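debug: dumping io for the single-chain case to check the tokenizer round-trip. Nothing else runs in this session.
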Amino acid sequence: MTENFLNLLQLSAAVVLSIVIGWAWWSENRNKVPGPARIRGYTISGWIALILLALNLGWLGGRVWADTTRLVAITSPRDGQAVDARVVVKGRVGYLPSGQGVWVLVQPSEGGPILIPNKPAYLQPDGTWSTLLFVGSESDHGKDFTLIVVLATEQSMITHPAQVNGAGSGVLPPGVVVSDRVTVTRR
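debug: decoded output
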């Protein structure tokens, strides 16, 4: 699902919740409460909807319904795009847990070792990131590779056996959170 669809779904849930609260209040109090008090009940449900919306959009410092599977996304290159041996991978980060970094790993699509870079991606203040990667070797023309963006601590990445001996491994380091994958073809 796309992020826009999820945001629309969350907004719809907030509106439906406010309608349900308003309806429940109205049905319980419709014969007991005079006109002005009834209007106050609808006003309260309206404020609840606005507060839920503000929380979800991050206006009050956080998201109530964060999309935890897509904390970090690759924006370039696109899925299926042909790339050179050296490629600048760019993306955006919605939320970065304390002590975590954005790492982009490379793996041949037919399987094989996951290659871990020496350092995390460079983060910008506006929530974007970028990193320079080497995809395959000169003999890998036309082969597919998967770029895997993960959240991980530097300690878990640099102490992983694939990083220490430089040979790569088919296993992700422990404690990493896979956030996005893009398949590219080597030119």
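debug: round-trip ok. The longest helix spans residues 3-29.
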